[in-house]
TrEMBL record:
<feature type="domain" description="Transcription elongation factor GreA/GreB N-terminal">
    <location>
        <begin position="5"/>
        <end position="75"/>
    </location>
</feature>
<keyword id="KW-0238">DNA-binding</keyword>
<comment type="similarity">
    <text>Belongs to the GreA/GreB family. GreB subfamily.</text>
</comment>
<dbReference type="InterPro" id="IPR006358">
    <property type="entry name" value="Tscrpt_elong_fac_GreB"/>
</dbReference>
<dbReference type="GO" id="GO:0006354">
    <property type="term" value="P:DNA-templated transcription elongation"/>
</dbReference>
<keyword id="KW-0805">Transcription regulation</keyword>
<dbReference type="GO" id="GO:0070063">
    <property type="term" value="F:RNA polymerase binding"/>
</dbReference>
<keyword id="KW-0648">Protein biosynthesis</keyword>
<keyword id="KW-0251">Elongation factor</keyword>
<dbReference type="Pfam" id="PF01272">
    <property type="entry name" value="GreA_GreB"/>
</dbReference>
<comment type="function">
    <text>Necessary for efficient RNA polymerase transcription elongation past template-encoded arresting sites. The arresting sites in DNA have the property of trapping a certain fraction of elongating RNA polymerases that pass through, resulting in locked ternary complexes. Cleavage of the nascent transcript by cleavage factors such as GreA or GreB allows the resumption of elongation from the new 3'terminus. GreA releases sequences of 2 to 3 nucleotides.</text>
</comment>
<dbReference type="InterPro" id="IPR018151">
    <property type="entry name" value="TF_GreA/GreB_CS"/>
</dbReference>
<dbReference type="Pfam" id="PF03449">
    <property type="entry name" value="GreA_GreB_N"/>
</dbReference>
<protein>
    <recommendedName>
        <fullName>Transcription elongation factor GreB</fullName>
    </recommendedName>
</protein>
<dbReference type="InterPro" id="IPR022691">
    <property type="entry name" value="Tscrpt_elong_fac_GreA/B_N"/>
</dbReference>
<dbReference type="GO" id="GO:0003677">
    <property type="term" value="F:DNA binding"/>
</dbReference>
<dbReference type="InterPro" id="IPR023459">
    <property type="entry name" value="Tscrpt_elong_fac_GreA/B_fam"/>
</dbReference>
Length: 162
């Protein structure tokens, strides 16, 4: 399955800041360090030179990825019409059959973060939630089998109102 190109405004800004940092700060510093290490002596046994060249390749790879990705990403801002239903950017409180609750935020695949309970719009849980309302049930296939979840609450952070 292809990954979606949706992202929150703050997620896009985070990726853009990373790109600018790598290109304007990190890469020039590493390039300078590699130049200085190259001037020292035998490059084949020069750890600073070898590590620096490897780090430059990593930076260049990430810069290429971010440049291409930022071009295709579509920022999705909050809209009042979303209220009451689950769409991209929603926070959702789910309750399982045992009465345990957990809150998730639906975000783009470039910004999902399990530590923050941010799940990708492309995940099975998020896909099954889209368009649902409070008190709806969803069935989700999990590694442990089918799971029945109830939607207790839906809300949106109002970032992106301009």
């Amino acid at each position: 399955m292809a990954k979606s190109n949706y992202i929150t405004r703050s997620g896009w800004q985070t990726l853009d800041q990373e790109l600018k940092f790598l290109w304007k700060d990190e890469r020039p510093k590493v390039t300078q360090a590699v130049s200085e290490a190259a001037a020292l002596d035998d490059r084949s046994e020069n750890a600073e030179y070898i590590y620096g060249k490897r780090r430059l390749r990593e930076i260049d790879r990430r810069v290429r990825f971010l440049s291409k990705r930022l071009e295709v990403l579509q920022i999705v801002d909050y809209h009042p019409k979303q209220e009451g239903k689950v769409f991209f950017r929603a926070w959702v409180e789910l309750e399982n059959e045992q009465g345990e609750t957990k809150q998730y935020r639906i975000v783009g695949c470039d910004e999902f973060d399990p530590a923050k309970n941010w799940i990708s719009i492309d995940s099975p849980v998020a896909r099954s939630l889209i368009g649902k309302e409070v008190d709806d049930e969803i069935k989700v296939d999990t590694p442990l089998g089918k799971s029945l979840l109830y939607i207790n609450k839906i809300w949106y952070e109002k970032e992106g109102l301009y």
